[in-house]
Every structure is written in structure tokens, then in C-alpha cells.
Write a structure and sequence with these properties.
alpha+beta, Helix Hairpins, SH3 type barrels, Alpha-Beta Plaits, 3 domains, 3-stranded antiparallel sheet, 19% strand
Length: 278
């Protein structure tokens, strides 16, 4: 290796020491990345368990754990880069100079982060609530730092960015303890409304899930072309909305005709004049 010193003026021992140092730093960098990412995962899981044991809101649990995981991974990467001998002061200065451009490029991401904080602070919904927002309806499963995860009734996963969700319209179907259930039943002209009303009052009284306060309402909504439309409104606990709605429909279908009440069909009266014109 004497030619190295003759040609480049570099001693073999210096080259050997340099390669050993680079190899050692590179190996340490890889170890830091592997161990650091593993520790970040362990710490995030431990934090999730601690928060859940303390009965912390589930939305805050998912948000905090995903945020801590991201911060820890960034610290691991910065530490690994430092191990390679790269001057982090210059690196940070470079990041600061590019900060404005990066901020503009990721303005949507920052908006989603801010939206996640707004959701956790204002609490328009929580994990487990059924909501309708951004044209989608589902059960809230996770509120992460950038996105909210909804599961539909047929188990599809909808991922919504937090920014538009926090700033848009939100319908929360489960936030209130009670909800009103509405029906529209039709009987034929000539049927007795009082008989239909009596039957409906009986059905309501026999269903223990229907609340007595607020009081139920039964009335004629519209005298339509082919039917008398009856509106029925009752109040139930939020969890009972669907069972009460569907079971009432089934009972009306099975028992109205037995009571002499008829479900009308669209019909048209045709009058024929003596001269044959319609």
C-alpha cells in the first residue's frame, strides 16, 4: 500500500482507521434505527395501555399514541444521522431554510393536524359515536393526528382527513341520550282513522322501549290523492332507534289488515260521458 502514500500522500494506517470509523458509525446508525423504532413501538403501546386504564377518552388515546410514535421516530432518525458524523447544526439550519417551502407543501397536512386537535378539544364526536360527515356515515373507530377512521355498517373503512371534518358539517346520531322515531303510515279512503289511531296507540303502549315523556304524537299528515297519510312520532333511547322502527313497521303490516284497515294503492277515477268522451 506504499503507492497510496506515494500517489496521494495518504498513509495506509490513516485509510484503515477512516474505514473502520465509517464502518463503526454506519453499524451504530443501523443499530440505533432498529432499536429506536422498536422502543418507539413499545413506548406507544405502553402509553396506550396506561391511558386506557385511566379511562381516558378513546379519541385522545389514539391521537396521543400516534403523535408520540411520530415524534419518537423523528428523534431516532436525527440521532442516527448524528451518529454518521453529520453536523446537525447545519442540518437543522437547512431544514429551517426550507421550512417555509415545506410548510406550504404540507399545508393540508398541518390543517389536518390542527383539525385533529380541534376535534379532541371541542369533542363534536367521540370514538364509538355514529356520525355523518363529508358525505359519509359510520362508527368512529379512531381519531389519529391527521385522519379520522369510520367503519360503515357493512364493515368498510372510511379514512377522512381531520381538517375538512373539523370545519365541515357533522351529524352525530348518538351524542344525545334520546332520539325521536318517525313513521308515515297510509290507510285507504273510507277506513276509520280512529281505529288506526287506537291500534297505533296500543302498539306504542305495549312497547316498553318507547318513552312516555316526551309524549307520543299521532295525527293525519296529508290527504293524498289515493291515501290518508298518518304520521307517528315517539321518543326512545338512542340505542333503541332501529329495533323500535323496524318492529313497528312489521307489526303495522301484520295487524292493520286484520283490523279491517287497508293499505292503499295508487288509483285513478275515470269518468265516461254519455257522448263517449272520457
Amino acid at each position: 500500500m506504499a503507492w497510496l502514500e506515494e500517489v496521494f500522500g495518504i498513509k495506509y494506517t490513516d485509510v484503515n482507521q477512516f474505514l473502520v470509523k465509517i464502518g463503526t458509525n454506519l453499524l451504530m446508525c443501523i443499530v440505533i434505527l432498529i432499536v429506536g423504532f422498536w422502543l418507539a413501538k413499545v413506548i406507544s403501546r405502553a402509553l396506550r395501555k396506561i391511558l386506557r386504564k385511566s379511562n381516558t377518552d378513546e379519541g385522545l388515546v389514539t391521537f396521543a399514541t400516534s403523535f408520540i410514535s411520530m415524534v419518537l421516530k423523528i428523534l431516532v432518525v436525527v440521532t442516527a444521522i448524528s451518529q454518521l458524523g453529520i453536523e446537525m447544526t447545519s442540518f437543522v439550519a437547512l431544514l429551517g431554510a426550507a421550512g417555509l417551502a415545506i410548510g406550504m407543501a404540507f399545508s393540508g397536512t398541518l390543517s389536518n393536524f390542527a383539525g385533529g386537535i380541534m376535534i379532541l378539544v371541542l369533542k363534536p364526536f367521540r370514538v364509538g359515536d355514529i356520525i355523518f360527515t363529508q358525505g359519509e356515515k359510520g362508527i368512529v373507530k379512531e381519531i389519529q393526528i391527521f385522519n379520522t377512521y369510520l367503519y360503515t355498517t357493512d364493515n368498510k373503512v372510511i379514512i377522512l382527513p381531520n381538517g375538512p371534518v373539523a370545519n365541515g358539517n357533522i351529524i352525530n346520531f348518538t351524542k344525545a341520550d334520546t332520539r325521536r322515531v318517525d313513521w308515515l303510515f297510509s290507510i285507504a279512503y273510507g277506513d276509520e282513522f280512529e281505529k288506526a289511531k287506537t291500534l297505533l296507540e296500543q302498539f306504542i303502549k305495549e312497547d316498553a322501549r318507547i318513552l312516555s315523556d316526551p309524549e307520543s304524537f299521532i295525527g293525519i299528515q296529508l290527504l293524498a290523492n289515493s291515501s290518508v297519510n298518518i304520521t307517528v312520532q315517539v321518543w326512545v333511547q338512542t340505542d333503541d332507534v332501529n329495533p323500535v322502527f323496524f318492529e313497528m313497521n312489521e307489526r303495522v303490516y301484520n295487524e292493520f289488515e286484520k283490523a279491517g284497515l287497508h293499505f292503499p294503492y295508487p288509483q285513478m277515477d275515470v269518468h265516461i260521458k254519455p257522448n263517449g268522451n272520457v
